[in-house]
Amino acid sequence: MSEVEIGFTLNGAPVQGRAEPRTHLADFIREEMLQTGTHLGCEQGVCGACTVFIDGRPARSCITLAASCQGADVRTVEGFDDDALMRRIREAFSRHHALQCGYCTPGMLTTAYDIVRRLPDADARRIRRELAGNLCRCTGYAGIVSAIEDVLANDPPTAGLAAMPRSVPVAGPAASPALSEPGITAAAGSHDPGALPDAASLKGAAHLTRSLTLSVGAGEAWALLSAPERIVTCVPGAGLTGPVEGGKLAGQILVAVGPIKATFAGRGAVTFDAGRRRGGLVGRGRDALSRTALEGMLDFVVAETGPGTCRLDLDMRYRLAGPLAQFGRPELVAEIADRLLAEVAAAIEREVRGDGISVAEAPKPIKGFALMVQALKAMLSRIFSGR
Ligand code: FES
Ligand code: FES
After folding, report:
1. Cβ of 93 less than 6 Å from ligand 2
2. What is the bridge-based pairing of β-strands 292-306 and 13-19?
3. Mean pLDDT for the stretch of residues 148-155
4. Is any ligand 2 atom within 6 A of the Cβ of residue 113?
5. Which of 30, 28, 58 is nearest to 133 (CA)?
6. Bridge-partner residues for 286, per DSSP?
């Protein structure tokens, strides 16, 4: 396979090198850039030893293609040598005997840094939950948890914050003007404020807007979209787990990414405005195995574009928290969402034509890995075609 030119910022300095498109970031950093602080354990995204920061978010460098980091800001454990906050974390690790062989330690330190910055009020239980994606064969974790508690208990963790770039939300093509009005899901009293997310609680969450062109009439599309039992059959991996009552629903969505399988089960609320053919969904779910939480809201509007055609405008806000959040790089999620939405659009057209899938059919998981591969291919082709 021919090599490609790859350039990004590594620990504050621009780096340039050549590698095959399939080369993982961890291999590129270790073998091309000769920075061996990043360790490789499982090489399939499970153990967390290879965790680095990409654009301010922790990510598994063993399942991130180096070429997909074109232009990104990558920070490895070496990049924290002079960081005051990381110095405190390192000292706390020493005080609490939070390492033995040290193999997991670069990933543990990176994850600890993220926890301390993001969750200043985290208690031991929360710290353990956040560390669930990092495996240590030696310590039994007690010292690691104590070290992080120690840092959180002493002095607010302000140092290091300014130096870390933050990812920006990814927005797609402009949505319809109707969606720039206050969304249905943001309307006061449109859902249970005690349990479900709303516009305020999702402030700062990742944001995606998309428009789908459908080869079905606006009325037919609306009839399908306003029937939760029907539209759910058009979403790969999704299913309802009970009847829809008073706009409240319970459901689940299956996601399979390589060796990782997650079933987000939760509940939500739907609202519809038939006059304007617009609706909203808010929901919150959790994968019990990985203890990863997903919450979000979706506004949609159907616009007539001609006889037998319409446009579906979507405005989504979502937040992932917990171990699997490391797979939620906004750019990658956006690419995966595009491919998933293309499948949904085709399923809507089939359903309206009457040859859709049966409601009783067991939901198939989202093929996250296949979608991710497609998404990465698309990103790479954009990167190397200069678009
Ligand atoms: Fe990357 Fe294990 S080596 S998660
Ligand atoms: Fe040995 Fe964690 S200290 S694997």
Report:
1. no
2. unpaired
3. 90
4. no
5. 58
6. 265, 293
| Consecutive H or E run containing 367 | strand 366-367
Q: Which pLDDT tens digit goes with each residue over 9-64?
A: 999 999 999 999 999 999 999 999 999 999 999 998 899 999 999 999 899 999 99
Lowest model confidence (mean pLDDT) among 20-34, 64-78, 224-238, 282-296: 282-296
Tens of pLDDT, residue by residue over 294-336, are 888 889 999 999 988 999 999 888 887 766 666 666 666 666 6
The strand ranges marked E within 164-308 are 206-214, 238-240, 248-257, 260-273, 278-287, 292-306
Quick one: tokens of 67?
Answer: 């070429």
Distance 140 CA to ligand 2 centre (A): 9
Ligand 2 neighbourhood includes 139 CB (under 6 angstroms): yes
Kindly identify the ligand whose nearest atom is closest to the C-alpha of 40.
Answer: 1
Mutational pocket test of ligand 1: of 24, 25, 40, the residue with most ligand atoms within 8 Å of the beta carbon:
40
User: From the CA of 62, how far away is ligand 1's center (Å)?
Assistant: 5
| Ligand 1 contact, 46 CB (< 6 A) | yes
DSSP 245: B
Which residue has the least CA distance to atom 1 on ligand 2? 101
- Could you tell me which residue, 62 or 363, shows the higher pLDDT? 62
Cα 12 to Cα 165: distance, rounded to the nearest angstrom: 11
Closest by CA to 35, choosing from 88, 76, 95, 89, is 76
